[in-house]
Structure formats: structure tokens, C-alpha cells
Amino acid sequence: MNDAISFTVGFSHGVEWGWPIAVYLLLAGISGGAMIISIVTRHFKQEVENSALTKAGSLVGFATIVFGMVFLVGDLEKPLYFWKILINYNFKSVMSIGVIAISFYIPLTAVMFFYAFEKEILKYFGFLSFLVGILRPLRPYVEFITLWFAIAICAYTGFLISVLIRFPLLNTALLPALFVVSGLSAGNAASGIIATKFFKEDLHSFDMKILHRVEWPIMIAEVLLIVMLAVSLLIGNEYQKEVFQAFTSSQFSLLFWGGVVGLSFIVPIVFNLLLGRFTSKSAGIYYMTAISVICGVLSLRMFLLYAGQTFGA
Amino acid sequence: MSNNGRRSFLKGIGLSSLALSVGGYSAVATNTKESQKKYAMIFDQNKCVGCTDCEIACKKVNLVPKDQFRMLIQDKTNPKTPRERRMVRVSCQQCEDAPCVNVCPSQACHRDSLTNIVTMNADDCISCKYCVVACPYDVRFINEETHAAENCNFCVDTNLKDGKNPGCVEACKYEALVFGDLNDKKSKINRILNIKDSLRMKPEFGTKPSLRYIPAVRLGV
Ligand code: SF4
Ligand code: SF4
Ligand code: SF4
């Protein structure tokens, strides 16, 4: 097309979806990831009593999604109109579908929280004991459904922004997969921190070993997906090629290399694999790497949103 | 009626714009089969001189805030050939398959049921900006005054409702803008499209815009 006929100005202000959305995407990812990990390990161990990891997973899963909604709704210019979404569903809209999924997911995580803290809750709110009778037999089913919703929530956060066809960095089928995997990674780290810090889980317990064991395959999958995303842009059409510079020579490259690569990959690799022999006993190192991973996952979402909306057709 | 007069009039009667426009359409719909209309617009780069009368008219008709635009004319003249003036219209392309409509969670951004024009119900907009980022042409914005997303809707709830051409078309003295119904074989827009080469902006997005551009041809040597 001849250049003089295609316009190059727009009416929006560059990055319209900024950091509150990135935080929301992070929190939703942590919630889904923590829920998936605690349900799967509980099932795998045939757990009867509620372990520290189960408690931590349900607490994190419930708290982060509720907190995430605060960011999502708070980012609206008309937050008090949020209820309009609830009466004017548009089933073609990923956001509507997500809101439907979340309105099932939040109550499910609340029930999961109730299961995990049954004893504690009943100690203070004895009158709730009738709920136990109703809910307890349902636990395996609730866990099964919550597991699928948790995966759906992680994936939906990716679909939410992968439908934006103007932005090649976002408009890719890899995004939902990347969001599931990085959600697992952040959820894993968050559950680990909460389990050891607040529920007195030993840093070298069996459960913590499971968390460490799954960390690596998750990380490898994450690296692979990011590499695929970058390569698909590098070998893509003219718009996609232009976006590739987001990784290498833009104001966001530092966020990518320092935040995404540094915090979520290099820090855990250096402290756990290379220096593992000297540091594995230290709680400080564990918390530092876990927090670093969570910050890395936040950086990934920030990078995708900001660079994604900056380099567009 | 003056700009402000109209605004206070709207506020004063306290009717939602929806109620108002529905009333308007039914009057039109009784004498024509509006639902079978397929409205489109041509921007002819050969004719546009860049006077921006269209921009001014648009703001006036649609009460667009001072520093915001539903449509504007971008000067794309190559600095090396300043005498070959090249203007281009920037506005909603009125996609047949509109991403903004698809993503809106509250159906505020919707297709008008009678004219099929992509338009807004400001009262239902929660200002989530999903449509703004989903529009591949970057021609949506949040109106500073209504806090609702907005796009060029061919004046469907203003001039069109009153049986007039869109404000920009009315204002253009050089016939650079032509508006009409593609399903009406005898319409002016069809006569032009039949004889002139026109194109859709960035067709690779696959949204089938209803806006057609007639690019300038180089005259002389
Ligand atoms: S150009 Fe943008 S605002 Fe207009 S119909 Fe297409 S997607 Fe919607
Ligand atoms: S900003 Fe308004 S019109 Fe746009 S998608 Fe959100 S609710 Fe719909
Ligand atoms: S009024 Fe007509 S000639 Fe003037 S800028 Fe607009 S389209 Fe071009």
C-alpha cells in the first residue's frame, strides 16, 4: 500500500492497559498456579490431614484472586459501573467469559479455603459446623472442579490480551500457555513462602522438596515458550519483525533481560543449582529466590503489556 | 441550536440518549427498510485539500471534547515533494467484523440494530478500554466528559437520525467525502466505487472496513 494513504496517528494514549492490569494478571496467575499445585500435590500424596502446603495454597489462591479483582475493577474509569458487566454479558468477549469464570472460581476458592482451615474456622465460628456436614463429602469433587477452573483462570488471562490483533507481541497463541506456566511458577513460589513462613513448614520437608522438584520443569517450559515467542516474531512479517526489537533495543529491553530473564531464571539458577551446596540450608536464600521469581513473573506481564502496546501496527 | 444549548437540552429532558435515538430510528424505519442498509464512506485523497472543515463539523455535531477527535485529517505530504499534498482521513473504519464490538464485555460498544453501524451506548460503558486496545486502527478513545469509549459512528444518533448526511460529509466543500448505502445500487457511493479504484486500510487485519480510500494519483511528470 502506498504510504501516503495510510494514516499513522491514533486516538488512544499508547499504553492504555498499564501496571494495574499487569498486577491483576500476576495475581490471577498466582492464584491459579497456587491452587493447581496444592490440589495436585494433595491428590498425589493421598493427603488426609491438611498439610501446611494445602493451607498455604488455598490461602494464596483465595486471597490473590480477590485482591486481583480490586486491581481490575480499580483500573476502570467507572468502577462503580462494574455491575453492568454482570447484566450485559457478551459471550464473544474474553472479558465477559473471564468474569463468568471468576464468579465461579472465587466461591470455589472460598470453599477450598474453608476445607483447608476447617479446624481453625470452627474453633472461632462454631455455628458453621453444619457446613462441614454438607461440604465434607463434596471435597474431592470441589477439588476436581477447582483444578479445572484454576487452569482456565490462568489461561484466560493470556487469552484476554492475545485477542488484541494490533499488537503482534500479544496476538499469539503462545500467550495463554505462557501465562499458565508462569502462573504455576509464581504460585509455586508464593505457596512456598506462605507455607514456611506462616504454617511452620520445614524448609526441607517432603512437601517443600516437591515444590523444588517441579520448579525446574516449569522453568524450562517457561524459557522455551519465551524463546518460541521471540523467534516467531523474528521470522515473522514486517510488523512482527519490528516488534522483535522490544527484546533487544527498546526502553523495555532492561525490563526483559533484568526482570524476566534475571529475576525469574538467573537468580534461581545461580542460587539453587550453582551455589546450592552452600546455600540450601538458608531460609533467607529461599525467600529471596522465591520473591525474585514472583517479581520476574510480574516483569514478564509488565514487559508484555508495555512493550506489546508500544510496538503495534 | 448552539452546542451548549443542545447539551443542556439533552441533560434537561433527562432522557438517555438511547431512548432518544430509538425514538428517532423508528420514525426512519417506518418508511425504509433500514436493517438492509450497508452504510459506507469514501475518502477521496485526490479531492481533499486539508481544510479541516470536516473536523470542526464533527466536533460540533457530536459534542466531542475540545482536544479529542472522532475523526481528523492527517497531513501525509512527503516533505520532499511539498506541492503534492497528501491528506488522509483518520477515523473509525466501521468494520463489518468489528473487534471492538466483539470484546466489549457490557455490550456498550455495539452494532446498531437498524443501520448495522458500530456505535456506542455511553450509559453501559464501564470504561475498561478493552475496545480501545482491541481496535486495530487505534481510532477509539475514552471521552473525557462522558468517560465512555467513543468512535466515529457516521453520526448515526445525530445527523443521520435527522435524515441528514454525517457532519463531515455535509461540511466538505470539495466532495472528498461521500457517504451512502452500498446496498442501494443507484447510490452515489456505488457509482463512484464502480469507476474508481478504492482500497481498504490495512486489509490484512481481516476486519472488512466500510471506509474506502481513493489514493491520489500522481499528476504530471
Ligand atoms: S475501526 Fe476500530 S472502532 Fe471502528 S469498527 Fe473497526 S474495530 Fe471498531
Ligand atoms: S471501554 Fe466501554 S465500550 Fe469499550 S469495551 Fe469497555 S465497556 Fe465496552
Ligand atoms: S472538509 Fe473535505 S477537503 Fe476539508 S479536510 Fe475534510 S475531507 Fe478534506
User: What is the count of structural domains of chain A?
Assistant: 1
Helix content of chain B: 25-40%
Radius of gyration of chain B: 18 Å
- Beta-strand share of residues of chain A: under 5%
Number of strands of chain B: 9
CATH topology of the largest domain in chain B: the name is: Alpha-Beta Plaits
Q: What is the oligomeric state here?
A: heterodimer
Structural class of chain A: mainly alpha
Coarse structural class of chain B: alpha+beta
Low-pLDDT segments of chain A: none
Low-confidence stretches of chain B: 1-31
| Count of helical regions of chain A | 13
What is the annotated CATH architecture of chain A? Up-down Bundle
Q: How many strand segments of chain A? A: 0
Tell me about this structure.
The complex is a heterodimer of chains A (313) and B (221). With 313 residues, chain A is mostly helical. Chain A is 75% helix and 0% strand. Chain A has a single domain (11-310), classed as Formate dehydrogenase/DMSO reductase fold (Up-down Bundle). In chain A, helix 8 packs antiparallel against helix 9 and helix 11 packs antiparallel against helix 13 (283-310). With 221 residues, chain B is α+β, with helices and mostly antiparallel strands. Chain B folds into 2 domains: 1-34; 37-214, Alpha-Beta Plaits (2-Layer Sandwich), CATH 3.30.70.20. Chain B has helices at 3-13, 17-31, 53-62, 99-103, 130-134, 167-171, 188-195, and strands at residues 39-44, 71-75, 87-91, 109-111, 118-120, 141-142, 149-150, 177-181, 211-214. In chain B, the strands form 4 sheets. Chain B has a 3-stranded mixed β-sheet, covered by helices on one side. In chain B, strands 2-3 form a two-stranded antiparallel ribbon. A two-stranded antiparallel sheet of chain B has the order 4-5. In chain B, a hairpin with a 6-residue loop joins strand 6 and strand 7. The longest helix of chain B is centred in the N-terminal third of the chain and has 15 residues, at 17-31. The model of chain B is unreliable at 1-31 (pLDDT under 50). Chain A binds chain B through residues 1-12, 16-17, 75-79, 81-82, 84-85, 88-90, 92-96, 99, 163-167, 309, 312-313, and chain B through 45, 68-69, 72, 74, 76-78, 86, 88-90, 99, 101-108, 124-130, 132-142, 147-148, 199, 201-202, 205, 213, 215-216. The complex binds iron/sulfur cluster (3 copies). One iron/sulfur cluster binds next to helix 4 of chain B. One iron/sulfur cluster is lined by residues 48-54, 73, 87, 171-172, 174, 176-177 of chain B.
